Sequence to fold (470 residues):
Amino acid sequence: MDASYERIVRRQARKLIRHLASDTIAPVDSTIVAKSHLEVRGATLTISKGQASKATIDVGPEPVVVGRNDACDLVVEDGKVSAVHVEFVATAEGVRVRDLNSRNGTFVGDARVVEVFLPKIAFVTIGDTIIEVQPKGPEAVALSELQNFGPLVGASPGMLVVFERLQKVAKSELTVLVTGDTGTGKELVAQAIHEASARASRPFVVVDCGAIPATLAESALFGHERGAFTGAVDRRASPFVEADGGTIFLDELGELPLEVQPKLLRALAEQRIKAVGSNAYRPVNVRVIAATRRDLVREVNAGTFRSDLYFRVAQVRVDLPKLRDRLGDVPLIVRKMFAELGDPNAFDRVAPDSFERLVRHDWPGNVRELRNVVAVALAFSTDGPIDLAGHLTPLSSSVTESAPTRGRTFQDAKRDILARFEREYFMALHAECNGNISEIARRAAMERAHVRGYLRRHGVVQTTRDSSTE
Fold:
């Protein structure tokens, strides 16, 4: 979620918490639900130097990918430009420019950028090609009026955009790529799309590409005949056959070995497969939904994922936000989880201060981590108040891995761990606040002079922006 939504999300969380005692949670923020849209700011891209497939192209809420690959939205004829080089997309803060791990980099002026927002006119250079970015006025992006889609719930802007997108894509036969961090609910999205589609009465088959040994990947995808290789004592049917007429979900597609990817591409394009050890192709009628926690566009430039397979799979792309980017949804999710665990009344026993602590948690494990917290809290609280936040599990692996204790005193180890925490804390806060000292001080509940001291001490920045009026 864009940083400009953070205030909305946190305000929404506070309002949701005040509604905990009610039987139902109605829309809680008129700026999110009643308006039924968000405003984003796009741009027009114009090739001011170089040759491309189009002289101009508009940037909206859908990403515009620029590169040499023929499947890119804007194809550039420049040997110094990567196959998939840079991505432009409209956001509430202006056009977001994201370099896709290109070989020669993306530049705004003289500065090489990885990701940057351009609210004003700018010139972006890739290779020998210069692209003028001319911002446009605000554009309305439709939001779902529903706060759920299948098993998914949420009222934050990011999730309402996702729900609106899912409602439309479910009715189509397009191939969908679901992206997001571990634990954000990618498989739930795939199953919800299937259940809302015309194929709902047919099978939904899951293939975990991350769990397939490289040597058996082709067999795991397409099946094999008896005796096709050593150990193939029985015939095995392909999951594509098992899913015939329904949907096949290729989870963690980015883990699929490179040598098997062309065969998967052929199967998707031709809607037919050939089992290992067989000489005959078999037609299949399946819809494909894939998911990955990897950035497949960058994997393409790294040479670990085929560009033609990426563009074939990502006919529609659905990006799931992290839980920490939609903290206002936590009470809604918790309410649903208690119901799924068989005790919907348990929600009324959660103290509001517990929710206050939950929305301050970073949630590295996303919704999956929250489900574990809810399940454990319910198991240990048969009656009386439920303290969900008391069951949060601290992540101690970074401490044990990065600060070994062998041969070090307690004070030395403590000093190093504390310094690391301070640096990471202020680096993250500095990035979130765009270097605004006053805002950093407010969030950290510290004096501005102390904030400057920590920033200088840990080398976060040399100079920082201050504003006592914001």
